[in-house]
Amino acid sequence: MKEEKALEAKKEEMTAYEESERTRERRAYVPRADIYEVDDAIMVVTDIPGANEKSVDITLEKNILTIRAYPVEEDMSGLSLLYSEFGIGDFERRFSISDEIDREKIEADVKNGVLTLRLPKAAPAKARKITVRPS
To answer: Are 117 and 66 in contact (CB under 8 A)?
Structure first.
């Protein structure tokens, strides 16, 4: 893959990130991601169950793309939980972005708890003739 350095996972473990402290008392999970390349973009698909477009925050700062999702808990009042295998918590994941990505055209879509990011490749720099003016 010629764009192999275009996107790298920065952290994998399910702990808080070194650069920041969490201010929420909920557990934070690192969602798994599938990353693949199409002709003109890098696609990132990650599961963030329970989150929607209003509860997802995506930022790009200093070549670090950060995804944060804050799923809304369902109202379980009146129900008695007998068994649970799902943990309740937020999601946070960071990726390093290379200069091969066009930062101004990044798109995100959330549908049924699946976040899809489209990271378009930047157009290659074109060769051009530079005119020399007399001084």
So the answer is: no
Domain locations along the chain:
1-11+29-71+86-123
Say yes or no to pLDDT of 12 above 80.
Answer: no
| Position 78 confidence tier, pLDDT thresholds 50, 70, 90 | confident
Q: How many C-beta atoms surround the C-beta of residue 77 within 10 A? A: 5
Topology of the domain comprising 1-11+29-71+86-123: Immunoglobulin-like (2.60.40)
List the beta bridge partners of residue 99: none
Q: For residues 11 and 31, give the distance between their C-alpha atoms in angstroms, rounded to a whole number.
A: 11
pLDDT band at 89 (very low <50, low <70, confident <90, very high): confident
DSSP-assigned letters across all residues of 55-72: SEEEEEETTEEEEEE-PP
Report how far residue 94's alpha carbon sits from residue 10's, in angstroms, rounded to the nearest whole number.
6
Full-model pTM: 0.72
